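Obj: model holo form, ligand = phosphoenolpyruvate.
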Amino acid sequence: MSISFDENTENTIKGRSAAHGISIGPAVVIKSGSKEISPKAISESEIDSHKKKFCSARDLLTQELQKMAVGLEDKSTSEIIEAQQQIIKDPSIQKLVFEIIDEKHLSVDFAVYETFSSFIEQLKESGSELFSQRIIDLEDIRDRYVSKVCDYISELKIPEGAIIIASKISPTELVNYYEQGAAGLVLEKGGITSHAVIIAKSLSIPCLINADKATRRVLSQGTIILDAENGGLILDPTDKVLKEYAEKLKGAKVAIKADNNGCFETKDGHPFKLLANVEFEAELPRVSEKNAQGIGLLRTESLLFGKKLRKEVAEQEAFYTAMLENVEGPVTIRLFDIGGDKNARRPYKEANPFLGWRGIRLLLDEKKLLRSQLKAILTIAGKYPGRVKLLIPMISVVDEIDLIRSEIERMQGALLSSGVSIDENLPIGIMVEVPSVALSAYHFAKKVDFLSIGSNDLTQYTLAVDRGNEKIHRLFQHYHPAVLKLIEMTVRGANKADVNVSVCGELAGDEIGAACLMGFGIRELSMVPNSLPGIHDLLSSRDKKDFEELAKKAVDLPSSEELEEYFREWKDRTGQ
Ligand code: PEP
Ligand code: MG
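Output (holo structure tokens):
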């Protein structure tokens, strides 16, 4: 008997599978985020610990702002940080927060939220233009404060095998829970390519998204079943259901197995490469387990936003070395892609962060940060010649390539003159994430050694759909024919410039996507390690002409739905 998750019922919550698998375990509900903080009563004996949480959060925030200020050169940004530091130091804030905790016996997260919100309301009511920046500062500080005091709450130990239920979660928090033994993730918000979800997939944590009101409906500690195969959550399962799922779980574990010998080709002998996307060291065991032929995308933002900041050159070098030592084959290191949903550094709110100060745009303004990363990467590239590739995120105009190239050459010159060896032939590539690059691919490709298509952002910017917004997740269609057309154009431009193209967005780990990409002539795909065996099976069991036929048809179809239908028929027909 299998349970249907078509509708929410008293005992089930439906969601959308974002990382497949099944988990049975105790639920841990994480209440974080600051948007809807409601008053929570605390007992007399908890008062001191809540006041301490406030003081620790204040100290942490102060340190964070100090660190930020050191790396910043832009005057207006430094002024914003200075203003935020003043707010944090203001003794009246502590006084009001403590009054709420002491006198009303309410929790610290609510006390912080309430204190800042009433200031914000007063400023708003004044209607003064002059105060508008101050309101943004206050909101920003409030949100960070609340997430800091909630971090304390969420850093409580979780039981082994726990299924985490949250509204949303940061990648760092997720890795922290994974290291404590978390076995499942259920989110109310988020899209399939939102950052934490990508990490859940990579860590093989079954994950369900868009699980409406899950944080309110699930009770911490009760045993629940997360069925991310069929898109649902079972609360309070009966013994019979538990037994059935325990059986399924056994079967699922056996099925996850690498099934290649390190050399990949289509049925008719055309070679292709499959590599892994990696962000945290915790992911490394799976890279070799699944026989990836290298790291096709090393995201580096965890160095800046992780629990332990690792901004220093030596700390960065240690991170890159761990990757090179634990994985065979090339390692493509991407420069910090800060901004968008990876925004911890942004000292103020932008109206449209995904269209704003992100990736290369930010790095070219923040030279100190850029140069420290270049120094680390170029030093490591010299130690492992021929194995490192450098990837630049969020390029949208060709000038950015000239500017970053001159920074790279400058750093290489400086290293050479201080006696450090470099890799003279270090390949330099750019991400194709913005439609302008796909549309003018030849002009961009001429200036670099390789292109790597970031289909997550390319989809977001082509279909105008925020990749993390659950309200419009239906529209995030990464194999939409329009996106595929842009990819086809990119390949044409790159071929003309004689430059290799690979894909490192989630599309590469999707069956429909991978098959179409092969059909466009792309021979290098990078994905979360768990997707490797399935994609290998699909690509090695068909001929090159089959993929070409599919890709040709795909770009002419009107919608993703029709492509899905065509793919099913294609798969049956060509799989004989
Ligand atoms: C992408 O945009 O497809 C990509 C791989 O980069 P990220 O998901 O880190 O933005
Ligand atoms: Mg991207």
